Amino acid sequence: xxxxxxxxxxxxxxxxxDHVDLDVxxxxxxxxxxxxxxxxxxxxxxxxxxxxxxxxxxxxxxxAMPRNARRVLPDVGAVVEAPAAYPxxxxxxxxxxxxxxxxxxxxxxRRARIDEMLTRVGLGGIDNRPxxxxxxxxxxxxxxxxALLHHPRLLILDEPTNGLDPRGIRxxxxxxxxLNSGGVTIFVSSHLLAEVEQLCTRVGVMDDGxxxxxxxxxxxRVPTGHIAVTTPDGDAAVAxxxxxxxxxxxxxxxxxxxxxxxxxxxxVRANIRIDEIVAQRRTLEDVxxxxxxxxxxxxDAG
Amino acid sequence: xxxxxxxxxxxxxxxxxxxxxxxxxxVIVAIFIASTRIVPPPGQGGAFxxxxxxxxxxxxxxxxxxVVPLFLPVAVAVLAGDAVAGEAxxxxxxxxxxxxxxxxxxxxAKLVALTAFVLAAIVAVLATSFVTGKxxxxxxxxxxxxxxxxxxxxxxxxxxxxxxxxxxxxITISMLGVAAIAVFLSTVTTSPLGATLxxxxxLVASELLVTLGAASSIAPYLxxxxxxxxxxxFRQPILWRDIVRGVGIQAAYVVVFLGAxxxxxxxxxxxx
Lengths: 302, 272
Known about the structure:
With about 300 residues, chain A is of the alpha/beta class. Chain A is built from eleven helices and 15 strands. Chain A has helices spanning about 40-45, 70, 90-100, 110-120, 135-150, 165-180, 195-200, 215-220, 235-240, 260-270, 285-290, and strands at about 1-10, 15-20, 25, 30-35, 55-60, 65, 75-80, 155-160, 185-190, 200-205, 210-215, 225-230, 245-250, 250-255, 275-280.
Protein backbone atom coordinates (compact mmCIF):
# COMPACT_ATOMS: atom_id res chain seq x y z
CA UNK A 1 0.00 0.00 0.00
CA UNK A 2 2.81 2.36 0.94
CA UNK A 3 6.40 1.74 -0.05
CA UNK A 4 9.16 4.30 0.14
CA UNK A 5 12.78 3.88 -0.78
CA UNK A 6 15.48 6.09 0.70
CA UNK A 7 12.89 8.84 1.05
CA UNK A 8 14.70 12.00 2.09
CA UNK A 9 13.52 15.54 2.75
CA UNK A 10 15.76 18.43 3.60
CA UNK A 11 14.43 21.83 4.74
CA UNK A 12 17.37 24.15 4.33
CA UNK A 13 20.07 22.79 6.62
CA UNK A 14 17.67 20.55 8.55
CA UNK A 15 17.39 16.94 7.47
CA UNK A 16 13.77 16.25 8.42
CA UNK A 17 13.47 12.79 6.84
CA ASP A 18 16.58 10.73 6.21
CA HIS A 19 16.52 7.66 3.93
CA VAL A 20 13.25 6.21 5.16
CA ASP A 21 12.14 2.84 3.77
CA LEU A 22 8.52 2.39 4.79
CA ASP A 23 6.65 -0.77 3.90
CA VAL A 24 2.95 -0.83 4.70
CA UNK A 25 1.15 -3.94 3.45
CA UNK A 26 -2.51 -4.16 2.44
CA UNK A 27 -4.72 -4.75 5.45
CA UNK A 28 -2.16 -3.50 7.96
CA UNK A 29 -3.00 -1.30 10.87
CA UNK A 30 0.34 0.48 10.81
CA UNK A 31 1.51 2.80 13.56
CA UNK A 32 4.33 5.24 12.91
CA UNK A 33 5.83 6.12 16.26
CA UNK A 34 8.50 8.54 17.33
CA UNK A 35 9.21 11.47 19.57
CA UNK A 36 8.01 14.96 18.66
CA UNK A 37 10.06 16.38 15.81
CA UNK A 38 11.25 12.99 14.58
CA UNK A 39 9.77 13.56 11.11
CA UNK A 40 6.44 11.69 11.28
CA UNK A 41 4.34 14.57 9.94
CA UNK A 42 6.89 15.27 7.21
CA UNK A 43 6.60 11.63 6.09
CA UNK A 44 2.81 11.95 6.00
CA UNK A 45 3.04 15.12 3.92
CA UNK A 46 5.48 13.45 1.53
CA UNK A 47 3.14 10.48 1.10
CA UNK A 48 0.28 12.83 0.22
CA UNK A 49 2.28 14.95 -2.22
CA UNK A 50 1.94 18.11 -0.13
CA UNK A 51 5.70 18.48 -0.03
CA UNK A 52 8.24 17.22 -2.50
CA UNK A 53 11.03 14.81 -1.61
CA UNK A 54 14.63 15.92 -1.89
CA UNK A 55 15.55 12.42 -3.01
CA UNK A 56 14.23 8.88 -2.88
CA UNK A 57 10.98 7.41 -4.15
CA UNK A 58 7.54 7.06 -2.70
CA UNK A 59 4.76 4.74 -3.80
CA UNK A 60 1.19 4.87 -2.54
CA UNK A 61 -1.42 2.32 -3.67
CA UNK A 62 1.17 0.95 -6.06
CA UNK A 63 1.71 4.22 -7.93
CA ALA A 64 4.47 6.77 -7.68
CA MET A 65 3.69 9.90 -5.70
CA PRO A 66 3.40 12.80 -6.16
CA ARG A 67 3.37 12.18 -9.94
CA ASN A 68 0.13 10.20 -9.86
CA ALA A 69 -1.58 12.24 -7.16
CA ARG A 70 -4.67 12.70 -9.30
CA ARG A 71 -5.20 8.94 -9.56
CA VAL A 72 -4.03 7.95 -6.09
CA LEU A 73 -5.54 10.54 -3.77
CA PRO A 74 -9.24 9.85 -4.53
CA ASP A 75 -8.73 6.47 -2.83
CA VAL A 76 -6.89 7.94 0.16
CA GLY A 77 -8.48 9.62 3.16
CA ALA A 78 -6.29 11.66 5.46
CA VAL A 79 -6.07 13.89 8.49
CA VAL A 80 -2.80 15.80 8.45
CA GLU A 81 -1.58 17.30 11.71
CA ALA A 82 -4.81 18.88 12.90
CA PRO A 83 -8.21 18.87 11.24
CA ALA A 84 -9.06 22.16 9.54
CA ALA A 85 -12.25 23.78 8.28
CA TYR A 86 -13.64 27.21 7.46
CA PRO A 87 -14.43 28.59 10.93
CA UNK A 88 -17.46 30.67 9.93
CA UNK A 89 -19.30 27.77 8.26
CA UNK A 90 -21.09 24.76 9.74
CA UNK A 91 -19.69 21.25 9.70
CA UNK A 92 -22.15 20.12 7.04
CA UNK A 93 -21.37 23.10 4.80
CA UNK A 94 -17.66 22.46 5.18
CA UNK A 95 -18.06 18.83 4.18
CA UNK A 96 -20.30 19.79 1.25
CA UNK A 97 -17.76 22.32 -0.05
CA UNK A 98 -14.93 19.82 0.28
CA UNK A 99 -17.00 17.15 -1.43
CA UNK A 100 -17.84 19.48 -4.32
CA UNK A 101 -14.18 20.50 -4.72
CA UNK A 102 -12.88 17.22 -6.05
CA UNK A 103 -13.74 14.15 -8.06
CA UNK A 104 -16.10 11.36 -7.07
CA UNK A 105 -18.64 13.38 -5.11
CA UNK A 106 -21.92 13.40 -7.02
CA UNK A 107 -24.23 16.18 -5.95
CA UNK A 108 -27.30 13.97 -5.88
CA UNK A 109 -26.06 11.81 -3.02
CA ARG A 110 -24.06 14.50 -1.23
CA ARG A 111 -26.47 15.20 1.61
CA ALA A 112 -27.05 11.51 2.31
CA ARG A 113 -23.34 10.67 2.22
CA ILE A 114 -22.48 13.53 4.57
CA ASP A 115 -25.23 12.52 7.01
CA GLU A 116 -24.01 8.92 6.93
CA MET A 117 -20.42 9.88 7.71
CA LEU A 118 -21.40 12.34 10.44
CA THR A 119 -23.42 9.58 12.12
CA ARG A 120 -20.50 7.21 11.75
CA VAL A 121 -18.08 9.49 13.60
CA GLY A 122 -20.62 10.36 16.27
CA LEU A 123 -21.73 13.79 15.03
CA GLY A 124 -25.10 12.67 13.63
CA GLY A 125 -27.10 15.15 15.68
CA ILE A 126 -24.91 18.15 14.90
CA ASP A 127 -26.74 21.45 14.37
CA ASN A 128 -25.79 24.40 12.18
CA ARG A 129 -23.42 26.11 14.55
CA PRO A 130 -20.16 27.27 12.93
CA UNK A 131 -16.91 25.32 13.34
CA UNK A 132 -15.67 28.20 15.47
CA UNK A 133 -17.96 26.91 18.23
CA UNK A 134 -16.79 23.27 17.97
CA UNK A 135 -14.68 21.68 20.66
CA UNK A 136 -11.33 20.19 19.66
CA UNK A 137 -12.81 16.71 19.92
CA UNK A 138 -15.69 17.63 17.60
CA UNK A 139 -13.26 19.06 15.07
CA UNK A 140 -11.25 15.86 15.23
CA UNK A 141 -14.40 13.80 14.54
CA UNK A 142 -15.35 16.12 11.67
CA UNK A 143 -11.86 15.74 10.20
CA UNK A 144 -12.29 11.99 10.34
CA UNK A 145 -15.68 12.27 8.63
CA UNK A 146 -14.05 14.31 5.84
CA ALA A 147 -11.33 11.68 5.44
CA LEU A 148 -13.93 8.89 5.20
CA LEU A 149 -16.32 10.71 2.87
CA HIS A 150 -15.17 8.92 -0.27
CA HIS A 151 -14.72 5.43 1.17
CA PRO A 152 -10.93 5.37 0.90
CA ARG A 153 -8.91 2.17 0.57
CA LEU A 154 -6.12 3.74 2.60
CA LEU A 155 -6.56 5.97 5.61
CA ILE A 156 -3.60 8.12 6.68
CA LEU A 157 -4.13 9.73 10.05
CA ASP A 158 -1.70 12.04 11.79
CA GLU A 159 -2.31 12.07 15.57
CA PRO A 160 -5.98 11.08 15.16
CA THR A 161 -6.81 11.08 18.86
CA ASN A 162 -5.41 14.53 19.63
CA GLY A 163 -7.94 16.45 21.71
CA LEU A 164 -10.32 13.54 22.14
CA ASP A 165 -11.52 12.46 25.58
CA PRO A 166 -11.18 8.79 26.67
CA ARG A 167 -14.60 8.01 25.24
CA GLY A 168 -13.70 9.67 21.94
CA ILE A 169 -10.41 7.77 21.76
CA ARG A 170 -12.31 4.52 22.27
CA UNK A 171 -14.88 5.49 19.61
CA UNK A 172 -12.20 6.29 17.07
CA UNK A 173 -10.25 3.10 17.80
CA UNK A 174 -13.38 0.98 17.42
CA UNK A 175 -14.25 2.76 14.17
CA UNK A 176 -10.74 2.26 12.76
CA UNK A 177 -10.72 -1.44 13.67
CA UNK A 178 -14.16 -1.84 12.08
CA LEU A 179 -13.00 -0.10 8.89
CA ASN A 180 -9.86 -2.23 8.85
CA SER A 181 -11.85 -5.44 9.06
CA GLY A 182 -13.80 -4.11 6.07
CA GLY A 183 -10.56 -3.99 4.08
CA VAL A 184 -9.28 -0.46 4.70
CA THR A 185 -5.56 -0.19 5.37
CA ILE A 186 -4.87 2.15 8.28
CA PHE A 187 -1.71 4.22 8.71
CA VAL A 188 -1.54 6.31 11.88
CA SER A 189 1.28 8.40 13.19
CA SER A 190 1.34 9.06 16.88
CA HIS A 191 3.58 9.61 19.84
CA LEU A 192 1.07 7.94 22.15
CA LEU A 193 2.51 4.46 22.64
CA ALA A 194 -0.47 3.04 24.48
CA GLU A 195 -2.74 4.20 21.68
CA VAL A 196 -0.68 2.49 18.99
CA GLU A 197 -0.20 -0.62 21.11
CA GLN A 198 -3.96 -1.07 21.34
CA LEU A 199 -4.73 -0.25 17.72
CA CYS A 200 -1.92 -1.40 15.49
CA THR A 201 -0.67 -4.70 14.14
CA ARG A 202 2.59 -3.35 12.84
CA VAL A 203 4.77 -0.45 13.90
CA GLY A 204 7.52 1.71 12.53
CA VAL A 205 9.61 3.83 14.85
CA MET A 206 11.23 7.07 13.74
CA ASP A 207 13.99 8.92 15.48
CA ASP A 208 15.65 12.09 14.28
CA GLY A 209 14.39 11.63 10.71
CA UNK A 210 15.37 7.97 10.35
CA UNK A 211 13.20 4.89 10.49
CA UNK A 212 14.99 2.93 13.19
CA UNK A 213 12.61 0.02 13.48
CA UNK A 214 9.82 -1.59 11.47
CA UNK A 215 8.25 -4.80 12.68
CA UNK A 216 5.06 -6.65 13.50
CA UNK A 217 3.89 -5.76 16.97
CA UNK A 218 3.61 -9.43 17.97
CA UNK A 219 7.27 -10.00 17.08
CA UNK A 220 8.38 -7.01 19.09
CA ARG A 221 6.59 -8.01 22.22
CA VAL A 222 8.83 -10.99 22.96
CA PRO A 223 8.97 -12.53 26.45
CA THR A 224 11.70 -11.02 28.59
CA GLY A 225 12.65 -14.28 30.26
CA HIS A 226 11.03 -13.21 33.49
CA ILE A 227 7.80 -14.26 35.13
CA ALA A 228 5.87 -11.90 37.37
CA VAL A 229 4.24 -13.55 40.37
CA THR A 230 1.95 -11.90 42.88
CA THR A 231 1.56 -13.86 46.07
CA PRO A 232 0.62 -13.14 49.70
CA ASP A 233 3.26 -15.70 50.73
CA GLY A 234 6.22 -13.75 49.47
CA ASP A 235 8.78 -14.90 52.03
CA ALA A 236 7.98 -18.56 51.50
CA ALA A 237 8.26 -18.12 47.76
CA VAL A 238 11.62 -16.41 48.04
CA ALA A 239 12.87 -19.21 50.27
CA UNK A 240 11.66 -21.81 47.77
CA UNK A 241 12.99 -20.10 44.66
CA UNK A 242 16.25 -18.99 46.17
CA UNK A 243 18.54 -17.73 43.39
CA UNK A 244 15.81 -17.34 40.78
CA UNK A 245 14.39 -14.10 42.21
CA UNK A 246 15.33 -11.14 40.03
CA UNK A 247 13.37 -8.53 41.93
CA UNK A 248 11.01 -8.29 44.87
CA UNK A 249 8.57 -5.57 45.81
CA UNK A 250 6.35 -6.69 48.70
CA UNK A 251 3.88 -9.20 47.30
CA UNK A 252 5.23 -8.89 43.80
CA UNK A 253 8.11 -11.08 42.68
CA UNK A 254 9.98 -11.20 39.43
CA UNK A 255 11.30 -14.69 38.78
CA UNK A 256 13.85 -15.68 36.15
CA UNK A 257 12.56 -18.29 33.73
CA UNK A 258 10.09 -18.55 30.91
CA UNK A 259 8.08 -21.69 31.73
CA UNK A 260 4.98 -20.38 33.51
CA UNK A 261 3.21 -23.78 34.08
CA UNK A 262 6.35 -25.28 35.55
CA UNK A 263 6.79 -22.40 38.02
CA UNK A 264 3.09 -22.45 38.84
CA UNK A 265 3.16 -26.19 39.67
CA UNK A 266 6.30 -25.71 41.76
CA UNK A 267 4.72 -22.98 43.86
CA VAL A 268 1.41 -24.82 44.29
CA ARG A 269 3.20 -27.97 45.43
CA ALA A 270 4.88 -25.88 48.16
CA ASN A 271 1.44 -24.61 49.24
CA ILE A 272 2.23 -21.07 48.18
CA ARG A 273 -0.91 -19.17 47.29
CA ILE A 274 -0.88 -17.29 44.00
CA ASP A 275 -2.83 -14.15 43.06
CA GLU A 276 -1.41 -13.76 39.60
CA ILE A 277 1.29 -15.35 37.50
CA VAL A 278 2.24 -14.15 34.02
CA ALA A 279 5.19 -14.18 31.66
CA GLN A 280 6.64 -10.69 31.26
CA ARG A 281 6.68 -9.32 27.75
CA ARG A 282 8.49 -6.30 26.49
CA THR A 283 6.11 -3.38 26.29
CA LEU A 284 6.09 -1.18 23.25
CA GLU A 285 7.41 1.52 25.55
CA ASP A 286 10.52 -0.53 26.32
CA VAL A 287 11.07 -1.16 22.62
CA UNK A 288 10.61 2.43 21.56
CA UNK A 289 12.61 4.05 24.33
CA UNK A 290 15.37 1.58 23.53
CA UNK A 291 15.74 2.74 19.95
CA UNK A 292 14.93 6.46 20.13
CA UNK A 293 16.74 9.51 21.44
CA UNK A 294 15.28 12.24 23.59
CA UNK A 295 13.15 13.97 20.94
CA UNK A 296 13.29 17.47 19.59
CA UNK A 297 11.37 19.22 22.35
CA UNK A 298 13.88 18.32 25.03
CA UNK A 299 16.98 20.48 25.13
CA ASP A 300 19.56 19.18 27.56
CA ALA A 301 22.52 21.25 28.63
CA GLY A 302 25.61 20.21 26.73
CA UNK B 1 -14.01 23.92 -8.25
CA UNK B 2 -15.01 27.29 -9.71
CA UNK B 3 -18.53 26.83 -8.33
CA UNK B 4 -17.10 26.00 -4.92
CA UNK B 5 -14.97 29.14 -4.92
CA UNK B 6 -17.96 31.27 -5.88
CA UNK B 7 -20.00 29.65 -3.10
CA UNK B 8 -17.24 30.44 -0.61
CA UNK B 9 -17.15 34.03 -1.88
CA UNK B 10 -20.88 34.48 -1.37
CA UNK B 11 -20.71 33.01 2.13
CA UNK B 12 -17.99 35.35 3.30
CA UNK B 13 -19.24 38.28 5.37
CA UNK B 14 -16.22 40.41 4.47
CA UNK B 15 -17.15 40.33 0.78
CA UNK B 16 -20.50 41.92 1.52
CA UNK B 17 -19.01 44.46 3.93
CA UNK B 18 -16.54 45.50 1.22
CA UNK B 19 -19.29 45.93 -1.39
CA UNK B 20 -21.51 47.90 0.99
CA UNK B 21 -18.64 50.22 1.92
CA UNK B 22 -17.74 50.72 -1.74
CA UNK B 23 -21.34 51.70 -2.49
CA UNK B 24 -21.59 53.93 0.54
CA UNK B 25 -18.65 56.18 -0.30
CA UNK B 26 -20.11 57.74 -3.50
CA VAL B 27 -23.44 58.20 -1.70
CA ILE B 28 -21.72 60.19 1.05
CA VAL B 29 -19.91 62.32 -1.53
CA ALA B 30 -23.20 62.91 -3.36
CA ILE B 31 -24.98 63.99 -0.20
CA PHE B 32 -22.28 66.56 0.55
CA ILE B 33 -22.30 67.91 -3.00
CA ALA B 34 -26.08 68.05 -3.20
CA SER B 35 -26.44 69.83 0.13
CA THR B 36 -23.61 72.35 -0.33
CA ARG B 37 -23.64 72.56 -4.15
CA ILE B 38 -19.85 72.98 -3.98
CA VAL B 39 -18.07 70.99 -6.69
CA PRO B 40 -14.42 70.94 -7.68
CA PRO B 41 -13.82 73.25 -10.65
CA PRO B 42 -13.66 71.46 -14.04
CA GLY B 43 -10.28 69.86 -14.54
CA GLN B 44 -9.65 69.42 -10.83
CA GLY B 45 -10.88 66.87 -8.33
CA GLY B 46 -12.60 63.70 -9.41
CA ALA B 47 -13.52 63.34 -13.05
CA PHE B 48 -17.20 64.17 -13.84
CA UNK B 49 -17.83 65.61 -10.37
CA UNK B 50 -18.03 69.14 -11.75
CA UNK B 51 -20.69 68.02 -14.22
CA UNK B 52 -23.03 66.12 -11.93
CA UNK B 53 -24.80 69.21 -10.55
CA UNK B 54 -26.21 69.86 -14.02
CA UNK B 55 -26.67 66.22 -14.96
CA UNK B 56 -27.29 63.48 -12.40
CA UNK B 57 -27.05 60.75 -15.05
CA UNK B 58 -23.27 61.23 -15.01
CA UNK B 59 -23.07 60.31 -11.35
CA UNK B 60 -22.30 56.59 -11.92
CA UNK B 61 -19.22 57.64 -13.88
CA UNK B 62 -18.27 60.11 -11.13
CA UNK B 63 -18.72 57.34 -8.57
CA UNK B 64 -16.37 55.07 -10.50
CA UNK B 65 -13.78 57.84 -10.56
CA UNK B 66 -14.10 58.02 -6.77
CA VAL B 67 -13.68 54.31 -5.97
CA VAL B 68 -11.23 53.16 -8.67
CA PRO B 69 -8.03 54.93 -7.54
CA LEU B 70 -8.01 53.61 -3.97
CA PHE B 71 -11.02 51.87 -2.48
CA LEU B 72 -11.67 49.22 -5.10
CA PRO B 73 -7.99 48.18 -5.31
CA VAL B 74 -7.83 47.94 -1.51
CA ALA B 75 -10.84 45.61 -1.51
CA VAL B 76 -9.33 43.55 -4.35
CA ALA B 77 -5.96 43.35 -2.59
CA VAL B 78 -7.63 42.16 0.62
CA LEU B 79 -9.46 39.32 -1.15
CA ALA B 80 -6.63 38.39 -3.51
CA GLY B 81 -4.05 38.41 -0.73
CA ASP B 82 -6.29 35.97 1.10
CA ALA B 83 -6.62 33.63 -1.90
CA VAL B 84 -3.91 31.08 -1.10
CA ALA B 85 -2.45 32.41 2.15
CA GLY B 86 -5.92 32.46 3.74
CA GLU B 87 -6.46 28.79 2.94
CA ALA B 88 -2.99 28.07 4.29
CA UNK B 89 -3.76 29.90 7.52
CA UNK B 90 -7.01 28.04 8.19
CA UNK B 91 -5.22 24.82 7.26
CA UNK B 92 -7.81 24.05 4.57
CA UNK B 93 -5.22 24.33 1.78
CA UNK B 94 -3.76 20.91 2.57
CA UNK B 95 -7.20 19.32 2.66
CA UNK B 96 -8.12 20.85 -0.70
CA UNK B 97 -4.87 19.59 -2.24
CA UNK B 98 -5.36 16.03 -0.98
CA UNK B 99 -9.04 16.00 -1.93
CA UNK B 100 -7.43 16.17 -4.62
CA UNK B 101 -7.77 19.57 -6.27
CA UNK B 102 -5.01 20.28 -8.81
CA UNK B 103 -2.88 23.25 -7.87
CA UNK B 104 -3.45 25.01 -11.20
CA UNK B 105 -7.18 24.42 -10.96
CA UNK B 106 -7.23 25.95 -7.51
CA UNK B 107 -5.42 29.07 -8.75
CA UNK B 108 -7.76 29.42 -11.74
CA ALA B 109 -10.83 29.04 -9.54
CA LYS B 110 -9.51 31.67 -7.15
CA LEU B 111 -8.96 34.07 -10.06
CA VAL B 112 -12.43 33.50 -11.49
CA ALA B 113 -13.93 34.19 -8.06
CA LEU B 114 -11.87 37.38 -7.78
CA THR B 115 -13.02 38.54 -11.21
CA ALA B 116 -16.61 37.84 -10.19
CA PHE B 117 -16.09 39.94 -7.08
CA VAL B 118 -14.68 42.87 -9.06
CA LEU B 119 -17.59 42.75 -11.52
CA ALA B 120 -20.17 42.48 -8.75
CA ALA B 121 -18.59 45.37 -6.84
CA ILE B 122 -18.51 47.64 -9.90
CA VAL B 123 -22.08 46.80 -10.89
CA ALA B 124 -23.23 47.44 -7.31
CA VAL B 125 -21.48 50.81 -7.23
CA LEU B 126 -22.92 51.75 -10.64
CA ALA B 127 -26.44 50.77 -9.59
CA THR B 128 -26.42 52.59 -6.26
CA SER B 129 -24.79 55.69 -7.72
CA PHE B 130 -27.28 55.70 -10.60
CA VAL B 131 -30.11 55.81 -8.07
CA THR B 132 -28.23 58.39 -5.99
CA GLY B 133 -27.71 60.59 -9.04
CA LYS B 134 -31.37 60.34 -10.02
CA UNK B 135 -32.54 61.27 -6.54
CA UNK B 136 -30.07 64.01 -5.62
CA UNK B 137 -29.24 65.73 -8.91
CA UNK B 138 -31.26 67.08 -11.86
CA UNK B 139 -31.52 64.87 -14.91
CA UNK B 140 -30.02 67.29 -17.43
CA UNK B 141 -31.65 69.51 -19.98
CA UNK B 142 -31.57 67.08 -22.89
CA UNK B 143 -33.97 64.66 -21.22
CA UNK B 144 -33.82 61.23 -19.64
CA UNK B 145 -31.80 59.32 -22.18
CA UNK B 146 -29.10 61.78 -23.17
CA UNK B 147 -25.85 62.69 -21.46
CA UNK B 148 -23.23 65.22 -22.42
CA UNK B 149 -19.84 63.71 -23.06
CA UNK B 150 -16.68 65.22 -21.59
CA UNK B 151 -16.07 66.76 -25.01
CA UNK B 152 -19.36 68.62 -24.92
CA UNK B 153 -21.32 66.62 -27.49
CA UNK B 154 -24.39 64.64 -26.59
CA UNK B 155 -24.32 60.87 -26.11
CA UNK B 156 -27.42 58.80 -26.74
CA UNK B 157 -28.69 56.18 -24.29
CA UNK B 158 -27.34 53.22 -26.24
CA UNK B 159 -23.94 54.89 -26.57
CA UNK B 160 -23.88 55.40 -22.82
CA UNK B 161 -24.68 51.75 -22.13
CA UNK B 162 -22.00 50.54 -24.55
CA UNK B 163 -19.41 52.84 -23.07
CA UNK B 164 -20.33 51.89 -19.51
CA UNK B 165 -19.87 48.23 -20.41
CA UNK B 166 -16.52 49.05 -22.00
CA UNK B 167 -15.48 50.98 -18.88
CA UNK B 168 -16.56 48.06 -16.74
CA UNK B 169 -14.33 45.73 -18.74
CA UNK B 170 -11.42 48.17 -18.59
CA ILE B 171 -11.69 48.64 -14.81
CA THR B 172 -11.98 44.90 -14.29
CA ILE B 173 -8.78 44.32 -16.25
CA SER B 174 -7.06 47.07 -14.27
CA MET B 175 -8.10 45.42 -11.01
CA LEU B 176 -6.87 42.04 -12.23
CA GLY B 177 -3.40 43.59 -12.36
CA VAL B 178 -3.63 44.28 -8.62
CA ALA B 179 -5.17 40.87 -8.05
CA ALA B 180 -2.30 39.16 -9.87
CA ILE B 181 0.31 40.88 -7.69
CA ALA B 182 -1.59 40.04 -4.50
CA VAL B 183 -2.19 36.41 -5.55
CA PHE B 184 1.51 36.01 -6.32
CA LEU B 185 2.45 37.32 -2.86
CA SER B 186 -0.27 35.09 -1.43
CA THR B 187 1.53 32.03 -2.77
CA VAL B 188 4.83 33.24 -1.31
CA THR B 189 3.74 33.92 2.27
CA THR B 190 1.29 32.14 4.55
CA SER B 191 0.12 35.47 5.97
CA PRO B 192 -2.90 36.93 4.11
CA LEU B 193 -2.23 40.32 5.70
CA GLY B 194 1.35 40.29 4.45
CA ALA B 195 0.26 39.54 0.90
CA THR B 196 -2.40 42.28 0.98
CA LEU B 197 -0.06 44.89 2.41
CA UNK B 198 2.63 43.92 -0.08
CA UNK B 199 0.27 44.48 -3.01
CA UNK B 200 -0.92 47.77 -1.51
CA UNK B 201 2.68 48.91 -1.05
CA UNK B 202 3.26 48.32 -4.77
CA LEU B 203 0.15 50.37 -5.59
CA VAL B 204 1.00 53.27 -3.29
CA ALA B 205 4.54 53.38 -4.65
CA SER B 206 3.18 53.32 -8.18
CA GLU B 207 0.67 56.11 -7.54
CA LEU B 208 3.45 58.18 -5.99
CA LEU B 209 5.86 57.64 -8.88
CA VAL B 210 3.17 58.42 -11.46
CA THR B 211 2.81 61.93 -10.03
CA LEU B 212 6.56 62.41 -9.70
CA GLY B 213 7.93 64.30 -12.69
CA ALA B 214 11.44 62.98 -12.14
CA ALA B 215 10.16 59.43 -12.61
CA SER B 216 8.39 60.19 -15.86
CA SER B 217 10.67 57.85 -17.81
CA ILE B 218 9.19 54.80 -16.08
CA ALA B 219 5.67 56.19 -15.64
CA PRO B 220 4.20 54.41 -18.69
CA TYR B 221 5.12 51.05 -17.17
CA LEU B 222 3.63 51.61 -13.72
CA UNK B 223 0.53 49.56 -12.92
CA UNK B 224 -1.63 52.51 -11.88
CA UNK B 225 -0.61 54.86 -14.73
CA UNK B 226 -3.65 54.25 -16.94
CA UNK B 227 -6.23 53.30 -14.31
CA UNK B 228 -8.41 56.29 -15.06
CA UNK B 229 -8.10 55.94 -18.83
CA UNK B 230 -11.65 54.54 -19.00
CA UNK B 231 -12.73 58.17 -18.65
CA UNK B 232 -11.69 58.48 -22.30
CA UNK B 233 -14.63 56.24 -23.24
CA PHE B 234 -16.79 59.24 -22.42
CA ARG B 235 -15.10 61.53 -24.92
CA GLN B 236 -16.42 62.04 -28.41
CA PRO B 237 -14.76 60.51 -30.35
CA ILE B 238 -13.31 57.94 -27.93
CA LEU B 239 -9.65 58.61 -27.16
CA TRP B 240 -8.18 55.13 -27.64
CA ARG B 241 -4.49 55.78 -27.03
CA ASP B 242 -4.39 55.50 -23.19
CA ILE B 243 -7.07 52.82 -23.14
CA VAL B 244 -5.04 50.54 -25.39
CA ARG B 245 -1.86 51.20 -23.44
CA GLY B 246 -3.68 50.61 -20.16
CA VAL B 247 -4.97 47.23 -21.31
CA GLY B 248 -1.51 46.30 -22.56
CA ILE B 249 0.21 47.22 -19.29
CA GLN B 250 -2.35 45.38 -17.17
CA ALA B 251 -2.15 42.32 -19.41
CA ALA B 252 1.61 42.33 -18.95
CA TYR B 253 1.31 42.54 -15.15
CA VAL B 254 -1.33 39.81 -15.09
CA VAL B 255 0.75 37.46 -17.25
CA VAL B 256 4.01 38.05 -15.38
CA PHE B 257 2.66 37.84 -11.84
CA LEU B 258 0.21 35.02 -12.46
CA GLY B 259 2.99 33.13 -14.20
CA ALA B 260 5.21 33.69 -11.17
CA UNK B 261 2.36 32.72 -8.82
CA UNK B 262 1.72 29.53 -10.79
CA UNK B 263 5.39 28.57 -11.00
CA UNK B 264 5.85 29.20 -7.30
CA UNK B 265 2.70 27.40 -6.18
CA UNK B 266 3.26 24.31 -8.35
CA UNK B 267 6.61 23.55 -6.73
CA UNK B 268 5.87 24.83 -3.26
CA UNK B 269 6.08 22.62 -0.17
CA UNK B 270 2.75 23.02 1.61
CA UNK B 271 3.79 22.85 5.24
CA UNK B 272 0.95 24.93 6.69
